[in-house]
Structure formats: C-alpha cells, structure tokens
Amino acid sequence: MTNDARPRPFRPRLGARLGYALHAGLAANPLYARLAAWLERRPRAYRAFTAAERVTKQELFGCRMCGQCALPATGYTCPMTCPKQLRNGPCGGVSPTGGCEVYPELTCVWVVAIERAEAAGHGTDLDLLHRPIDQRLREQSSWVNYWQGRDDDLWTSAPLLRRELGLQPVGKR
Amino acid sequence: MSLRAAFAAGRFAVTAEIGPPRGADPDAITRKAELLRGWVDAANVTDNQGAHVRMSSLAGSVLAMRAGVEPVMQLTCRDRNRIALQSDLVSAGALGIPNVLLLSGDHPRFGDHPDAAPVFDLDSTQLVATARTMRDEGVLASGREIGARPGWLVGAVENPFAPPRSFRARRLAKKVAAGAEFVQTQYVFDVEVFAAWLARLRDLGVTEKCKVLAGVGPIRSLRVCEFLRSGVPGIHVPDEAERRLRGVPAARVAEEGVSMCVETIQRVAAVPGVAGVHVMAFGYERGVPEILERAGIAPQPAVSMEGLGHAG
Q: Which InterPro entries did the record assign (chain A) (predicted)?
C-alpha cells in the first residue's frame, strides 16, 4: 500500500499564516499576467516553470498538480490530497480522533484545513462553495492559470451561509 | 403517501433502507419491500454500499417501485464521472423515481475491489448543485439544455458525530445552499450531540430550507455493537449505550437494542426541527414495523402507484 499513487492526506509543512503572507507576493497583477502569457508561448520555459512549481508545492503541501489551486481558500491545506478529493469539506467517515476514513493513521486533510484556516482568521473561507474542477488542467501550472485569470470561477465569491443572506441555490456559473 | 407529500403536509416522515443483492435476483428487493410496504414513506436503495458490487440502485429502485415502495435512489460519486452521474439522474427522472440521495460514497479501498479506480470527479456538494441545476434550470453542468426535466426531490447526508463537529452544521448548510431539500443523518445513538447540531442548523436557517431525517437503527448484538464502535468509520456509539447492552443477559440483548432504538426515535422526534426518521435495520427489515409501532408512529397510507413519477 505504501506505493499506492492515489491521493492520501498530507499535513502541510508551511504554516498557514506564512501561506497567506506569501500569497500577497504571488497575487495576480498585470506583470504576472504577461509573464504567464510569455511562458505559455515557450514550451521549454513553461515546462521548467511548472516543474519548479511542482517541486515546491509537493514538498510544502503534497501538491497533486490539479492545475487549479484551492490553497488560498482552504487554510493552505490541499484538498486534492483527500483520498476522495473533496473540495467542499470533510466526508462523514472521519474517525473520532480526526483520522482519515481511508488512511486512519493519517489526519483528515479537512480537519487540518479547518484548524489552520480558523487559527489564521480565515474561517469564513470554509463556507465558500467550490465548483467542480476542470480535469483538463491537470499537470498544468496553477500559477500560470491563476495569473491568466482562469481561476476566477473556482469558488463562490461570498459565503452564503449567514441567515440574513438566505441560502440561495448556487448552481449558476 | 410519498416522501414529498409527507414533507408538504408537515407529517412525521419515515424512510428505511433496502440493500440490493449481489446477484441478479429481483425477488431479493421485492421481499424486503414487502416487509416495509405500508410502514414507510420511502426506502433508500443503496448504491454499491461499502464499495461492494451489488445490483445498481437504479434497477433496485425500479424493482422497489414495482413492489409498491417509493424509492430514494442513492447515487455516489465514487464510481461515476460527471457524465455518468448526470446520465443516471436523467434516467431516474425518466423512470419516475421520485427521490434521489446524493453522496460521496465509501472509498474502494475497503470494498471488494480495492484495486478499482476511485473516480470522485465531483464531490457530493457539487453533485447536489448539478442535480438542482438540471431539475430547476433544465441545464447540464456543461450548460447544455436538457429537454424534459426530471422531477425528483434532492437529498443529501450528513454525519453530526464526525470531527470536526463544530463544522458539521456548516457543511450541511453548504449542501443546502447548493440545493439539498432533505437530509438523512448517520446513526443517532447520542441524542444530545444530535440536538446540539440541530440547534446550530436552526441558527443558520438551514431547517427552513431542508427537512432533517434522523438516522436510527437497532443494535441487536454485542458483536454488532463492537463492530459499529470500532469497525465502521463515522459511527459514534457512546459508552452509555454499550453499558446498557452489556447490562442485560445475553438472551435479551436483541430486545434491549430494539427498545433503545424505539426510545431514540421518541427522543429525536421531540427535538425541534426534526422532520422524521430514517430507519437503518440491515438484515432486520422484518422488525421495522414493530419498531415504528412501539415508537408510536402509525402505518402510512398505501402508496398510489399512479402518483409515483408525476410528483415533480
């Protein structure tokens, strides 16, 4: 089972606060958008850039290279390392001690995500509704996709759970 | 009466469960349906439960309908990508299946095909949103229009007892924001934890949009008790319940477990915001009428087959 390539929970090696801080340096801007467009025109540069992203994010977050990064909305804890790749919160099989249903010796990624997001003051992010991922983007650079504005639709823009907002169905794209 | 009618009338709703057989024997469904007919508003037909291969929930639902029991067709994200999920939802609509229950599903690792690909193309919340968009807006996840719209009610599940407990009401609120109209819970053995979760749901305004059915079931032996405590993910059997079962002579454990189930139904029914119960009695379907009767729940008026499938 140790060689099973399927996703398994990964506890991030980077503090959540540092993640939020670093995001400020990576936030989309016109310069990054131009860099991303340039990379996409140069396959070798794109491959090198993507490899660097892969190595960094695998080491820190157990990145699975879905190409559409959820980290900023999940306390910098990767939901794609959940064996069920759930992007909207934990399944019902979490053990009483917070263990993953599928790999009981590992802590559920969502238990970790919720702890980290709340400790960093980002608890309301957890109420965002994440849309289905685009499977075509796997193995692509999520930074390039993000800088190109392709991530704008990954999750709903505001938590819809407070009573005064009502609970509107959000199937709309 | 149907589940939809029970919800509309504000009547205490009762659902049960039918697990389809491993083989191609339609009578296995019919026999279970006949035990439940007249006592429940609807019965869930499980979808390859525990990641073990069974007759499909779609076929099982049709067989249950033929036997006079309204089905709740379970559909998991484990084995199907978004194309197959939407196809099965359309099929359920075409066959007049009045309710669907959408869930992530147990991982194949502990099923009878641990070497299978876990699909999980959508998660349960995304599947609920997809289903509601199909039914209410008549479009697929791709944006393409469908012709005739399906009419099923959209259900979801939640486990109020699994960590992180403080997040469990919010997680259901997400599913309800996505479009879930009713929810069935994991087994309730600890009514206080359940009531606290429900209070949080009321605060969030969830119970105004979504009917909550409390999951219940009898623990009929110490072996099953031990299995539920240690062998099934997400089930919380408090020490008190175990002590009670151990406190009676071996010959009376089954009876005590049934009594505990009856009491749990009565206690959850008194929690504000509970719309009904979901009775899970695997292999003990014959005992469901007795449990309901002792809990003071009257038999349901017979299902009119003509009404099935035209509810939406």
A: DUF5981
